[in-house]
Amino acid sequence: MMKMGEMWTQLGSVMASMMFAYAMFKQFFPDDLGNILDKYTKKLVGYVYPYIQISFDEYTNEFHKRSEVYASIQSYLSTKSSTRAKRLKAHDVKGSTALVLGMDDNEEVTDEFQGIKLWWASMKSASKKTSFSFYPEYDERKHYKLTFHRRHRDLVMGSYLDHVRQEGKAIAVSNRQRKLYINNTEKGAKWSHVVFEHPATFETLAMEPKEKQSIINDLLKFSKGKDYYKKIGKAWKRGYLLYGPPGTGKSTMISAMSNLMNYDVYDLELTSVKDNTELRKLLIDITGKAIIVIEDIDCSLDLTGQRKKKKEKDEEDNEEKDPVKKKMEKEESQPSKVTLSGLLNFIDGIWSACGGERLIVFTTNYVEKLDPALIRRGRMDKHIELSYCCYEAFKVLARNYLDLESHELFETIERLLGETNMTPADVAENLMPNSVTEDADSCLKNLIEAIETAKEEARKKAEEEEASREAEEEAKLKAEKEEKEKEQSAKDEVKCNGTSAKEGDVK
Ligand SMILES: Nc1ncnc2c1ncn2[C@@H]1O[C@H](COP(=O)(O)OP(=O)(O)OP(=O)(O)O)[C@@H](O)[C@H]1O
Ligand SMILES: [Mg+2]
Description:
There is one protein chain. By secondary structure, this protein is α/β, with parallel strands linked by helices. The chain has 17 helices and 13 strands. The protein is about 50% helix and about 15% strand. The strands form three sheets. A seven-stranded mixed sheet has the order 8-7-10-11-12-9-13. It has a four-stranded antiparallel sheet with strand order 1-6-5-4, with helices on both faces. Strands 2-3 form a two-stranded antiparallel ribbon. Helix 15 runs parallel beside helix 17.
């Protein structure tokens, strides 16, 4: 025999379908009659019908804005609809990479959540066209209707709706086109953007595998850390300092980070930011899920000197000076008025907490030049050194560029890379075939030749440096010797004069 629960579920399903059919049927009645019919039908159904319905309108009443909840539900249902609904509708959403498939109007899909069943229907109701309307398209109103058994009210209100919103947002984010923003000087403190389509990934990034994995783990932990950051009372952001010689993959890593996390990139050109206020304005405009990049931070501003300069200036200011002269001097000494303290505020001041889920990445070739305050842990949480190409990194490049997992020349390359410094950019350049006819063998041979040349150049350079150091040392010793001899002869002269003077006295 059929169980009670099953019976209710079936009855529910029948009733939900009936309600759905009724909603469509109602559209054919004139409005007044439809409203009366609606009122009494709902009353009657309320006695026997154990189901609850919630509607989600496409547009909010507030400025006819498209409802975010509706958009999230649409994304959420797009995955369910594509497999379960019979009639689908395809539409391209602005800023989305893929065509979004959704339920067609007046279509229904069933969802399951923690063992309970729920029904979603996409409804369209036409309201009378007003004679004067700015938004004629809104006369046709769409909404989603969710139906579920009343005994699941707590679960639905408590966690299901939240689950739908979160999932929907995540689907929308994964479908969206990522953007690369740059701060535009002409427009003041504003960002301009282009679609970001850099193909670099952590898979194609050449570096020591353990280190690479630890960076990936760190990033993934961060992206799932919303509750954790809340618990420890910290803003949900993380700072990375990437340092190393030119051509070791710092910028490439930023693209890989963006592709892994699905974050937009904000490339901040500090030299074109007028002052701290403008910097703050730019910061406020950055949304969540973003990587804020400041490349070559050592060249961006004289950040290291500014605190020192300020100190010196304060001392000078204490001395009495003509106020007009003082003002002019002040203006002259500050070409870009973004200061170190302004930048520190940008990174971890109270304003930096708005938006959430951000990475801040600094790159530099000269880590030792930076002010320790800028890169202390907590501001720059992770310091990553990108260095010369090791054998493991070479293997990644060989796989990327030549589809090679192993080769008899690998051993020679391993030995040579251990003996000299070559950047991944140089190795990559040599591995890239120069023509369609060039094969892997000849690329590897090119590389070996290039490493040997680099090794020879490095040896010569070291010899020259040694020779110039020795020459400097010799010149220094010679100068010291000459100095000593001069001193000695001066002393001897004094002595000699003294003796002759005494002799004169006696006479
Ligand atoms: N670790 C790497 N893995 C893969 N490719 C790399 C790596 N390092 C460099 N390359 C290659 O070399 C080119 C230059 O690298 P990239 O611009 O990332 O260097 P960089 O460290 O940012 O240099 P700079 O300090 O001059 O800005 C890249 O386009 C990429 O093709
Ligand atoms: Mg770079």
